[in-house]
């Protein structure tokens, strides 16, 4: 494994499972100091401890990404404890996302938007100034294929992820001259615990979704983590403001 993230301090939200956990481990293995922001203290501390046992550097900071003050605290810990901030993988999101335009209640809409879009706004608002003060760096926001194409069964989630793509592009333009890059991942099916649980509970629906996937499989978490690590490294200096599909050609057919 390379040390291309050596000396970088990187935040990952939602870093206790799935793509976030895979990225935290990958970034640490490439030399980064990783701050894991999430709500689950037990899993967060366990993940940080496992990274440390493998020779990496990680710290868990209890964080509810829907609360701006907690995001601000996460960034402050990075700066005060480790001397700066050089990158972030804003990955937290998901939750209960199913609901059509006619069935979605306002309270459900508010929860989905808060977790999947407002949290990214809070993150960028506090991360970008800290990254600028540290000399520049990179941010990756985890969007979704339904951030570039509609989904009638998950309208709030799709709206939120479309918002993440727009927010990514706007933030990239805002900070480009200050040496901060901001990109979004357009992820498709990924073999996370959430997907495995959904597949077990809804085998027919899971089979239908896999049937739409040109590759016939879901991505491995490690594949997403590797791409995010590349975008957060100095090997991708001219990739900025992009919504990058890592979806096994799923959106190529839309």
From TrEMBL:
<dbReference type="InterPro" id="IPR036291">
    <property type="entry name" value="NAD(P)-bd_dom_sf"/>
</dbReference>
<dbReference type="InterPro" id="IPR002347">
    <property type="entry name" value="SDR_fam"/>
</dbReference>
<dbReference type="InterPro" id="IPR020904">
    <property type="entry name" value="Sc_DH/Rdtase_CS"/>
</dbReference>
<keyword id="KW-0560">Oxidoreductase</keyword>
<protein>
    <submittedName>
        <fullName>SDR family NAD(P)-dependent oxidoreductase</fullName>
        <ecNumber>1.1.1.-</ecNumber>
    </submittedName>
</protein>
<comment type="similarity">
    <text>Belongs to the short-chain dehydrogenases/reductases (SDR) family.</text>
</comment>
<dbReference type="GO" id="GO:0016491">
    <property type="term" value="F:oxidoreductase activity"/>
</dbReference>
<dbReference type="Pfam" id="PF13561">
    <property type="entry name" value="adh_short_C2"/>
</dbReference>
